Structures are given as C-alpha cells and as structure tokens.
Amino acid sequence: MKGISVLGATGSIGTQTLDVLANHRDKFRLVAMSVGKNLALAEEQIHQFKPPLVSVMTDEDRKTLASKVPEGTRVVCGEEGLIEVATAEKAEILVNAVIGSVGLAPTLAAIEAKKTIALANKETLVTAGHLVTEKARENGVKLLPVDSEHSAIFQALQGERMDRLHRIIITASGGSFRDKSRDELNGVTVEDALKHPNWSMGAKITIDSATMMNKGLEVIEAHWLFNLPYEKIDVLLHKESIIHSMVEFVDRSVIAQLGTPDMRVPIQYALSYPDRLEFHKGQQLNLWEVGKLHFAPLDMERFRCMAFAYESGKQGGTMPTVLNAANEEAVELFLNNQLSFLGIEDVIEKALERHERIDSPSLADILHVDQETRAFVHSLIK
C-alpha cells in the first residue's frame, strides 16, 4: 500500500485525488494533506480518511480545526506546515495540487526527501524548472505529470526512444471564449469566463484556460518535463478535449492518448505508475457517440498569452517567473472585478517589458522577482 500526501486537498485536483484514493483503499493510504480556506470540506475529508497530519493556511485556522479532528490527527500551519506534509515520513508520493508558486518550496523539500512527485502544480516548473529538474536528477526522483496533456504525452512515450521523437502536440480546448473574436471579449464577465465547456476545474485554472495562459504554462512545463526545445512543442486547438495530446516521431507516426474529459484518469495513472488500475467511475469513450473531432491551428494574435509564454520560455532565466507571478495577480484582480478580462494580457505584457532578466537564477532570485512582480502589478491598479 502506497502512502500518499496531498498538497491542496480541498481544491479541484485535490478532491479528485481523494476520490481516487477512496476507490482504491487497498492500494493507497492518505498519510498527510494540506488544505485551503474551505475548512468545512477539510473537516469532512479528515474524518473520512483520518490522515495523521494536516496543514492549514493560518494559525487561526489551525486552532479552529484542531478541536474538530479525530484523535491521532495533528494540525500544523503555514509554509512550514506545507513542507512537513510534503516530506511526511510514510508518504511515498507527493501529489502537488496547490495553485500558484506556493507549491515550489514544498516540492523542493519533497525531492530532497526522495518522494516521487505527482505534479499538478505547473507553476512549480514554470517558475523554477531548472532548479526542480536538476534537484530531481540529483536525488533520483521521478516527476510524474498529473495534467491531462502531460500525462497523455508521458503515456505515449512509454517504451519509446526520446532521440526518435520529432515533436509533441499539446491539445487545447480553447476555453470559455474560444468562439469569440478579440472585439467580442470587451466587457465579458467573470461569470462568463468561469463557464468552461469541457472541464470541471478551479476558478484560477478556468480563467487561465479562457486566456490560454494555462496552455502557455503547460508549454513551459512540457519543456522541463520532457527536456525538449520549444521548437518541438506545438499547440493545437481541439474543442472536444477527447485527444489529450499527441507525440510525433521521426518516421511521422503519431501516437495520441484519448479519453473522456476526467482528471481522475491522469491522477490515478500517476499514483499507480507503472501499473494501471481499473477505473469503474469513468465514462467509457465511444467515438461513434462523439461523431466528429475538430482541430484548428493556434492564432497567437488572438491568444496573446500563448505568445507571451513561448517568448518567456525561450528567453528563460527569470522571465517565466515574471510571467507566472503577473498572471496570478492579474487573474485574482479579474476575479475580484478590479481588472477587465483583456486587462489580464495588458498587465502581463507590462510586467514582462519592464523586467531585466536574470540568467540561471537562484531560489532567492526567483522568490525576489516573484514578489517584486506581484507588487508591480498591484501598483498598476492603484
């Protein structure tokens, strides 16, 4: 039985991870978890899974929850708590499902503790990909992708030689506004943006999908996960989200991974790898019911965030850190109705233009640039 720790257990990926654990209690045991602001849901999860260790955001939350958990569950808080969860002694696999760069420090700590990393927190690799992958190599730690697109590529590469790979093709649904022109995006609301046509995700990722920044971050993540130059990473619009991604080899053979849009499938594969477990809850893919699959090239002028991501990734250094930090803050401002939808792009562009890149940044450099960028974004709004 594998011991599993989960960062972000009350979020979209976290709750689906716990669903996988609940369906395979003979295979997995939850030994530690961190939670966000939803303490009511956290309390339910704790009573269901009885993890020995739980981390919350603040000391006030810790005091609130500590009196409500079963005997044997210890409650900690803050970044130290996240790191304690990430490095829990009985955990073999850390599922990093938190949103944003807060996932970086616990991931690095878990790698040092030689935990296998099931990574749903793409910002960790976007912000500090060179540090994370280097430390993983040094410690012999596997980085297993949880994002459906990266899982699809990972699955398609099983048994294949990387020197025979020609390119990878990441598919994108296009998000909530995929059928709108740029002119039609003026004045769109938060409620409109949160209506994703295919996937059930958290608010931040759903907005990132609407701007296509989510796919841009996935491109940078793929660069680090698969050690590929950006010239070998393409993005293809695919409305149905049935083909999750593809790999093309030098003989022009293309291998694709298909399935219904259900994040529990890539989560379960990361936890069970290299084995596969039955998934009784999942909907079977019947292509005759789908009928047609649609594909279209990506327009970088329509989806400017994709252009920002490719350019930031190619420049490297601290540019992806700025990209990620500016986007996180801009999305939060949009969700709070302090910034327009198209204003997200404008803020990111201004942050990138003002930044003087640091090559081969240290962790201290990354953390400083991250905070500086966030402050700059808020100065624009003020």
Keywords:
single chain; 382 residues; alpha/beta; Rossmann fold; 3 domains; 5-stranded mixed β-sheet
Question: What does it look like?
Answer:
- With 382 residues, the protein is an alpha/beta fold.
- It folds into three domains: 2-141, 3-Layer(aba) Sandwich (Rossmann fold), CATH 3.40.50.720; 147-261 and 282-302, no CATH class; 316-382, Orthogonal Bundle (Rna Polymerase Sigma Factor, Chain: A), CATH 1.10.1740.
- 46% of the residues lie in helices and 15% in strands.
- The chain contains 16 helices and twelve strands.
- The protein has helices at residues 12-23, 39-49, 59-66, 78-86, 104-112, 122-139, 148-156, 190-193, 203-211, 213-225, 264-272, 287-290, 304-315, 319-335, 341-354, 363-381, and strands at residues 2-7, 28-34, 53-56, 74-77, 93-96, 116-119, 143-145, 165-172, 233-237, 243-249, 254-258, 296-297.
- The strands form two sheets. A seven-stranded parallel sheet has the order 4-3-2-1-5-6-7, sandwiched between helices. The protein has a five-stranded mixed sheet with strand order 11-10-8-9-12, covered by helices on one side.
- The chain is globular and about 55 Å long.
Structure described in brief:
This protein has 382 residues and is of the alpha/beta class. The chain has helices at residues 12-23, 39-49, 59-66, 78-86, 104-112, 122-139, 148-156, 190-193, 203-211, 213-225, 264-272, 287-290, 304-315, 319-335, 341-354, 363-381, and strands at residues 2-7, 28-34, 53-56, 74-77, 93-96, 116-119, 143-145, 165-172, 233-237, 243-249, 254-258, 296-297.
